[in-house]
Amino acid sequence: MDRGVENERGMMRSENYQGFQMGGLKHGREMGDNHHRRALRDINNISNDASYPSAAFKSRSNDVVPIDDKNANSYIGRRPITRRFAASLAHKSLDCSQNASSKMKPIGSERQKRNQPIQNTSCVDNCDSVDVDDFVSPNDIPLPMVEEVEEMVDFELKEVEMEDLETKLLKDIDSCDSNNPLAVVGYVDDIYSFYRETEELSCVPPTYMSNQLDINDKMRAILIDWLIEVHYKFELVEETLFLTVNIIDRFLARQSVARKKLQLVGMTAMLLACKYEEVMVPVVEDLIIISDRAYTREEILQMESLMANTLEFKMSVPTPYVFLRRFLKAAVSDRRLDLLSSYIIELCLVEYGMLKYCPSMLAAAAVYTAHCCLKGFNHWTRTSELCTRYSERELLECSRMMVDFHQKAGKGKLTGVHRKYSTYKFGCAAKSAPAIFLLGMNL
Predict the structure, then answer these.
(1) Membrane-spanning regions, if any (predicted)?
(2) What is the pLDDT of residues 5-53, one digit of tens each?
(3) How would DSSP label each residue in 300-353?
């Protein structure tokens, strides 16, 4: 047709016009052979390997198409979404989420077991092979009762409230020091978390004395009892005493020492601790005098070098004292509780058997035992439990040993701690009655 005829009819035909009339596809091909146009109804139905949709459908209908994981999606994509087919898909999704396959039998599962392929002949046939009664509708799943939902919500709310309460209790510990820059309130939690992680570095094997050939645990006790008196005479800070004992134990756990050199080890350990903790460090001559000139200056300096190299210069370790100060703060302690806790924990420094407990355990048990002494009954607050991370049951064994030491203090030969805490300077804490009831208490 020419353009003039089209204009006379009052219409403009596009270039894709193929002349569809009563003749359908045949007439269209006759009119548009030069352009090789296809019918609109055949668009999107032709695959890459066939020129016409009828040929493609005919060849595919006779092909064998097994359903497996690889082509399952393509198989489902070619099926119409009927009610039965939708029900089968919903049930398959439900069973996958519940990990239960007893009620669901996917299409072709029996054929797959026999390794027999499925003939993809008709979507209607495949849909008829599915029985909707075999599937469980998501609407049939029993929902929880209103009471159960309310109980779950209440339980979660209680947990959140408990966590908020615990956080508030721990924050209240440092509220009094919010204006004290030396208390480093913003970093104190991180500092003690680091102490918790590294306190194992300060621990020694509780049986290390078995590797020593010339000394034993009784000699260690005599040495530490003497050092407590030296520490008191030099008026050193408490951190120095605990670090001195720690250096001695760590060194003896690695190095064999002769009996006549044991006092030299103790004096040198105190010198190292003073250099780390004290502002005014005692000079070597003071140590020589306090030891009744048993050792020379050169011997002390040589031992200092040996000990520093043996310990690899690791002097910064968490001792029971750093935990004791924190736990007393959590217990809202007064002067009586402070002194009695320090007295009990210093009694443990002399005892070789207390090395099996980590520093934080010793500090927590000392505070708990002192509380029981002053109160007359077992007393352990929730705040103390959260701060120390030890329950009353976990502390009971260590606390009973401390009560035993408290009973025996001042009766044997090693009375340095008892005499120190019997003075008015330390509040006569040694005269407090021990919490004997803890020895027979069961939790």
Answers:
(1) none
(2) 444 444 444 444 444 444 444 444 444 444 455 554 444 444 444 444 4
(3) HHHHHHHHHHHTTT------HHHHHHHHHHHTT--HHHHHHHHHHHHHHHH-GG
